[in-house]
């Protein structure tokens, strides 16, 4: 007699396990343990030898002041907001939150050392790294850039690969920071260029080499009703705290402008996203949760470069409205097109949320500095624009340099990591043949190019203990009543399925249907 689906699944998994090479078996001291142990041990030694506490009485910046509240808000965004934003992946929630926390903890520590190195190159004074609130914020900014890049590759890389990506990214991130801000004096208070655009295009360059060139269907790369609700929690946290992110390093005389511009840009972006999400739907009367989760934040990204400038509230709202439109259009039209044409598999759509809005912010900086009136700025003008009337040229150069360093360094890291990357299996679920026999959608025990058993992408099963009773199983709407897991992108919908296309194409939810 034919085995039941549950027993068949167990046999398939047992077969896969039996073909796993010995060094890939469960071990207490595997590559995960060794890599992260060495990384943290190295950081402990470096901090022990190179750092000291700043003296609060000598530096007002080191006092427990409003900067601590801003540092907390930025940390809240990095460790909570970004992690929950990525929980839209219905079977990678543990990984989205847990690995975000793990890699961010490493990146904050490593970014502080990298930033401090280039500060000493700039000043020529080689002394102890003084740890204060400003350095903690700088470390969080570096981790934020890494989490943006993480969004492009999430679900497709191992924890060890995340560590290596973060290690190299912080080196090139700090180099770009040194060139663009310290050397060129580009105005970029909220990091539209040095944080968001750099992180997005670095991650996109890496994912081009760590994603399969053939057209695989990532069955787990999508959300359902519950996972999308958790992702919206991350969206709200990021949205509420973004004024703190953009104003953390504002001069006292520009603090109010930085907060106000970011606040009104976010409000206008929210309105824009809802309007165009509905307008871009096939029927013109449905909102897409993917757009709402992401594009509503684009206003905070785009305004960062000009947050402390005298835009007027209306100008800030125009930047936010444009960012919402560009980001929503990117999710709807550009991302599927790039996937089809060049195979760019951007898991979280960082190009739409951070890349294009970051470049928009850079261009806004060019325009805002070009029309800046010295009479309106008064004594602030020389502080805000270190190159005077030539500032727009430096702003434009900052865009080009950021894109160049991000794409070149991301390409180099991707090329180095590609020969060792586990391209994995793209489905671990059971499908039924026309005859009704259960079969596995991916080859059981298939070896990747490194000789190890291929992993399952976008699945917590590979790295986490899953509680009993939670089954990683896809119910196929062609044969069953129950939940139907829909693909993340409407472009991935199979036109031959039995669900009405007008419903499937516009909804990322898991819903009940009878067919």
Structural features, described:
There is one protein chain. By secondary structure, this protein is mainly α. It has helices at 5-18, 31-50, 66-85, 93-123, 133-153, 159-183, 192-210, 225-247, 255-279, 289-294, 298-303, 313-342, 350-370, 374-377, 380-384, 391-417, 501-504, and strands at residues 51-53, 129-131, 430-432, 438-440, 482-484, 511-513. It has a two-stranded parallel ribbon with strand order 1-2. Strands 3-4 form a two-stranded antiparallel sheet. The longest helix is centred in the first third of the chain and has 31 residues, at 93-123.
Short description:
This protein is mainly alpha-helical. 58% of the residues lie in helices and 3% in strands.
**Overall pLDDT score:** 83
Instruction: Compute the CA-based radius of gyration.
Output: 24 Å
The overall strand count is 6
Percent of residues in β-strands: under 5%
Helical stretch count?
17
Shape: globular
Distance between the termini: 28 Å
User: How would a textbook summarize the main sheet?
Assistant: 2 strands, parallel
In N-to-C order, the SSE pattern is HHEHHEHHHHHHHHHHHHEEEHE
Helix content: 55-70%
**Low-confidence spans:** 19-25, 426-453, 473-515
Task: List the strand order in the largest sheet.
Answer: 1-2
- Structural class assignment: mainly alpha
